[in-house]
UniProtKB/TrEMBL annotation:
<keyword id="KW-0720">Serine protease</keyword>
<dbReference type="GO" id="GO:0006508">
    <property type="term" value="P:proteolysis"/>
</dbReference>
<comment type="similarity">
    <text>Belongs to the peptidase S51 family.</text>
</comment>
<protein>
    <submittedName>
        <fullName>Peptidase S51</fullName>
    </submittedName>
</protein>
<dbReference type="InterPro" id="IPR005320">
    <property type="entry name" value="Peptidase_S51"/>
</dbReference>
<dbReference type="GO" id="GO:0008236">
    <property type="term" value="F:serine-type peptidase activity"/>
</dbReference>
<dbReference type="InterPro" id="IPR029062">
    <property type="entry name" value="Class_I_gatase-like"/>
</dbReference>
<keyword id="KW-0645">Protease</keyword>
<keyword id="KW-0378">Hydrolase</keyword>
<dbReference type="Pfam" id="PF03575">
    <property type="entry name" value="Peptidase_S51"/>
</dbReference>
Length: 212
């Protein structure tokens, strides 16, 4: 059964994660892929998400796809309980995944039931195609990417950071341009889209849970 936890910011909704898994997550092993952030100047969100996982008690194995071999990627994805892909540049991320064949390895693991967690770019790539985020990301940061197909883990198109700074204008521009053309699902930083088999939900971390 496919299990996806798709966020704009994992650290913002981490309190919802253990309930979603239905199991104690302390001691679980996580393949942590920060690749998307390598071409970005601002990277604090990667550390925020890493700290959130550590606070939950997960054991983190960092997997840098751009420097790993295909075999190393395959082994890391296999031996960890969960897979996480951070935010950053969606196009660069997809370029590096495809160069190593990691896109196919991810799809195989996820279709076999391994839990996948995405943040921002890591969530966008679950869509059938990533071209729709061109106004939020820079395709030119992935000069070797020749086509924009995503992992197609879902049939909808997830748009992160909807109306959140600094993406307020660019995210609204994407909604204006694509909402009538594709099944666009915008989520803010305090929302998450969960997939359990054929069951898809959008959850909101309310203020009470933030304080809890």
């Amino acid at each position: 059964m496919k299990r996806l936890f798709l966020t704009s910011s994992f650290s913002s909704v981490a309190k919802l994660f253990e309930d979603f898994t239905g199991e104690p997550v302390k001691g679980k092993k996580l393949a942590f892929i920060p690749t998307a952030s390598l071409v970005e100047k601002v990277r604090f969100y990667v550390d925020d998400d890493r700290k959130a996982f550590e606070k939950l008690g997960l054991i983190i194995e960092e997997l840098e796809v751009s420097t790993a071999t295909t075999e190393e990627v395959a082994q890391a994805l296999e031996r960890n309980d969960y897979i996480f892909i951070s935010g950053g540049n969606t196009f660069y991320l997809m370029q590096e995944l495809k160069k190593k064949g990691a896109d196919k390895l991810l799809i195989e693991q996820i279709n076999n039931g391994k839990l996948y967690i995405g943040t921002s770019a890591g969530s966008v790539i679950a869509s059938p195609n990533i071209e729709f985020v061109s106004d939020m990301d820079e395709p030119k940061k992935a000069p070797e990417l020749t086509e924009y197909s995503g992992l197609h883990l879902v049939d909808f198109y997830l748009l992160p950071h909807y109306l959140n700074f600094p993406f307020k204008e660019s995210s609204q521009k994407v909604v204006n341009e694509y909402s009538q053309k594709i099944d666009l699902r915008p989520i803010s930083n305090n929302q998450v889209i969960t997939v359990l088999g054929n069951e898809i939900k959008t959850l909101v971390l309310d203020d009470a849970k933030k304080l809890g």
